[in-house]
Amino acid sequence: AYIKVIEEKNKDINAFLEVNKEEAIAKAEEIDLKIKNGEEVGALAGLVFGIKANINVEDFIISAASKTLEDYIGSYDATVVKKIKSEDGIIIGINNMDEFAAGSSTETSYYGAVNNPAAPGRIPGGSSGGSAAAVSAEMCDIAIGSDTGGSIRNPSSHCGVLGMKPSYGAVSRQGLLDLSMSLDQIGPMARDITGITLALDTIIGYDPTECTTLKWDAPNFTEIAESIKGRKKPLEGMKIATCREFREVTNDEINEIIDKSVEKLEELGAELVELSFNHIDICLPTYYLINYVEFFSATRKYDGRKYGSRIEEVCGEEVLRRIQIGSYISQKEFSGKYYQKALQARSLIRNEINKMLKDVDLIVGPTVPKLPHSLGEKLEPMEMYAYDVLTVIANLAGIPAASVKAGDVEGIPVGLQLQAKPQDDGKIVKAMAAFE
Ligand code: GLN
To answer: Domains of the chain by range and CATH?
Structure first.
C-alpha cells in the first residue's frame, strides 16, 4: 500500500530519494508467513520505515543529499538500522534532506526541494524534511531522522506530525554522518504516539561501539503511553512551565494556538507556571559557532580520496559557508576567542535550562517561531537561522524534546514543543500521549 502511495505522490513531494520496492515486499511477505505459521515476530513487525539519507543502510545510496556522496553506497547498517531490522521493521527507502543536514527547509538538497504535503507549495521544514513529508503523506509509518538543532522537531511541526529528539546519548549515533557531533541525536517521527514509542523502545540503548551513548535503564515508552489511555486527567501531578521569552520571539498567530494547547494541558490535569529564560539572545550565535567548527572537522574526511568528491568542489552554498567559517574560527590564533567562548555560552544556556527544569517537569512552547515560507522564496542565512531559535536550546543542553501538532493557521500546521530534563524522555512521551 505504501509503495502505491509513493509511486503516486513522490514525483510531486520528493520525500524519497530511493525506494527498494522488491526487498520491502519480500520482507513484508516473509513476516506475513511467519505470522501465519504462528512464529514469533519482532515488535516492529509490518511497520514501514523511511531512513534519512545521512544514516547508513547497507546497499542504499547514503548521499546526505550532497553531490559529494552521490555515489556512496552504505556498506553497513547503522546501529539504529540494525535494531529496526532485528525487530522486523521494513525499511522501504531513503528520505530527502538538507545537504549534510545543514538547513531548516530541505531546499539545499542536491536532489531538489521537498513539497510540504500538509501545506502544498511551502517548505516542509528541515533538515529532515523528506522524513516528515513521507510520514505526513502516508508513504511510511515511521521515519528516522537526525536532530542537531531542531531537524526532527522543525519539520514535524511544519508537516503536522509527531517527532522526538531523545536525550543526548540515548540513541547510538554509530553510522550517522555527523553534522555536529556534540549536538547530533537520532530520533523518530510518526503520525501517532504509538509509532514514536515503538521506535524509541527499539532504538534507545547503550552501544559499546559508540562512546557517547548512555548506560541507561530506559523505561518502556509504549507502556507509559498505554498506561494513561482513557484517563481523564492523565497529567495530574505534572508541573508544566511556559516561558515569556519564547513567546516574545514568536509570531502572534502561532502564540494563539500555543495558548490554546497550554489550556488543554491544564484541562488534562497539569499545573501551569510561567518561567523566564534569560539567554534566548545568545542561543543562535552559540549554536552556529559550535556547529561550524564541528562540521568543518567532520567534513575533513571528504577530501576526494576515500569517499566521493572533494566536498569544497561540489557542495552547495550553505555547506561551503559553514566549512569556510568553521575553518577560519578554529585557527590557532583565534584559540579562546570564538569556539571556547561558544562553549562557555553553552554552559550558561545548559545551566539555566536545567535550573528551570529543577522546579518543573516540562517546559512547553512553540516548536518554530514562524510559519514555513513558500517554496522558491529566497531567504537570507540569518532569516533561515531564525527558524531554529527555539529548537537549538535542547541540543545545546542535551535534553530531550519533542514536537506534537497543536493546531493550524489556515491549514498550515503548528507544533507544540515539549522539553524535559536529561533522561526524563518518559515525561515527554506521557504528555504527548495525553495531548494527541
Ligand atoms: N537548522 C539547523 C542547522 O542548520 C539544524 C539542523 C539540524 O538539526 N540538522 O544547523
So the answer is: 2-435 (3.90.1300.10)
